[in-house]
From TrEMBL:
Residues 4-123 form the VOC domain. Pfam families: Glyoxalase. This is VOC family protein. It comes from the Bacteria. SUPFAM superfamilies: Glyoxalase/Bleomycin resistance protein/Dihydroxybiphenyl dioxygenase.
């Protein structure tokens, strides 16, 4: 199998709110959009995102009323501290402040208007032996 593109499809209550959040704060661009639908992409290798409005009939009946929950959308980035500073300056809702885990993961989280948790991560040399 050769995977050429990865896309994450999220069912949300307000497509426009998530679309605006992702384009404003995370550099996504709208590839296609219609009522209750948006396809977002980036110029780099980040995962594409499709947003579908909850209840839309394009979804199978058992999926129509579900909403994205319990999901953390994680992106590995360079210069995590600069990204956090930029997002704070833009007024993005940082819901977990920058921290470093003993195994070398530095991260912080923000949450979009539909409750989608986005985690930005940078890997560093661990500061302590996790044993």
């Amino acid at each position: 199998m050769n995977v050429s593109t990865s896309t994450l499809s999220l069912t949300v209550a307000d497509v426009d709110a998530s679309r605006d959040f992702l384009t404003t704060h995370l550099g996504y661009q709208v590839a296609m959009a219609a009522d209750g639908f948006a396809s977002l992409t980036r110029e780099d290798t980040a995962v594409d995102i499709v947003l579908l409005r909850r209840g839309t009939e394009v979804l199978p009946p058992e999926q129509r009323d579900q909403q994205a929950a319990g999901l953390i959308l994680a992106f590995t980035v360079g210069d995590l501290a600069a990204e956090e500073a930029r997002l704070r300056a833009e007024g993005a809702p940082i819901t977990m402040p920058l921290r470093e885990e003993p195994w070398g993961e530095r991260l912080f989280q923000l949450t979009d208007p539909n409750g989608i948790v986005i985690q930005l991560v940078e890997w560093v040399t661990p500061s302590a032996d996790p044993r």
